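Internal ticket - ligand job 431, N~2~-sulfamoyl-L-arginine:
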Amino acid sequence: MLGTSYALPVQERDLYKTYDGYRVIRIFPRNQEEIQYLHGLAERLCEVMKSPLYPGGPMDVMCSTNKTNEFKSILNKRGMEIEEIIENMGSLIRSIETKKRRNSRKEKKAKMNWDDYQRYETIVIWMKKTAKENPSFIKLIKMGRSVEGRGIFGLKIGNSPLGTETRAVWIDGGIHAREWIAISTSTYIIKKLIDTFSSEQTSDPVIQSVDWYIAPLLNPDGYEYTHTNKRLWRKNRREPPVGDKKNCYGVDLNRNFGTTGFGIGASTRTCSEVYWGTAENSEPETKAAEKTILKYKNNIRVYITFHSYGQSWLTSWGYTSDLPEDYDKLYTLARRGADASELVNPKREYIVGAGGAALYLAGGATDDWAKIEAEIPYSYTVELPTKKSFVVDPAEIIPIGEELWAAMREMAIEAANTPLGKDKRLKEVKA
Ligand code: 0X9
Ligand code: ZN
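stdout (structure tokens):
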């Protein structure tokens, strides 16, 4: 619903959180017991920003000034090693992101560019325009509407060289509102595809051998809220369930997908950052993504969802520490993608592994859903740079976009060589 203003309760509408005095502390839990303990402690006192992927790996927790000392002294007593990685989240946000006036008309409806993060309206207007200008190889897909009524859109880009037998790659971004780099990387890949498909000089038979489905902004309400109210908002903007005394908004869309493991690593508490919702697939954003992917699932051979932060390619499974039967194949392609990115930027190091293998189980996420329910052979969550924060300098948008563009070429090669239809090996998993 472009050009509409949204009626939010006064307290929600008027507050802008500065994050002044919020610090980010890095801890290195050594085992499952420590991580469980830290999650409990952080839920009570602070907020988990990033969970560790392997024993001894970093876990980041953001605390307000008055809770920082309490949190630190509890950890000190337990002999846990800690590091302060962000001294003042407010200063960080202001210093690198808020160069423009929030809410100015100019910002909401800018001309599309990758020098800065763009608002919902700018992105959607650009997607519609670009589809209209290139009808021979782009189709606009109306996927559905968000809780607040914003349209959720995708693009199909490609010439379908094998007709209905053409293999495809799916990419989505922005299911978590605060992960701005996931949205800019998705739109950057759209831009590179347009360049490739529209000119002889820049054409590339590998990229053009498959079709591309890209949904750059799956959680538009949450994303807009990160611009207007809380930069570090994660969930969608679902109103609190009737009778919820805490009056907490939002469902974690990446815990709301109905598949094996739903509920694992998620919470029934509405105020939690990983609140799973009132039921599986309860959210309109979830339904929009599921419906669209299911429509094209026979062709989609590789599913990619961009998140941040951490620099990792996470393969199946996410809900269990068991590995899938075809883990080696999943790992090999992810490593090829990560290597391609590292070749573009040799300073980058991406970790590759199963999402749930070591410490951090999360069920009801899109990656498990895509592999189990949509039977897509390759499914990945890519946690984009940086290693330190959701707040990424806009000067990094194009370099990170270029890194991932290189990885997408590997995805196209594999997709083009993967048979159509469902992934047969999965029968056992579903049983
Ligand atoms: O926890 C998540 O949803 C993802 N990390 S994030 O920091 N971007 O929120 C990771 C999801 C990995 N996949 C599964 N565990 N299924
Ligand atoms: Zn995320």
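Auto-summary: The pocket of N~2~-sulfamoyl-L-arginine (ligand 1) is lined by residues 50, 176, 179, 254, 307, 314, 318-319, 355-356, 362, 365, 367-368, 381, 383 (CB under 6 Å). The longest helix spans residues 397-416.
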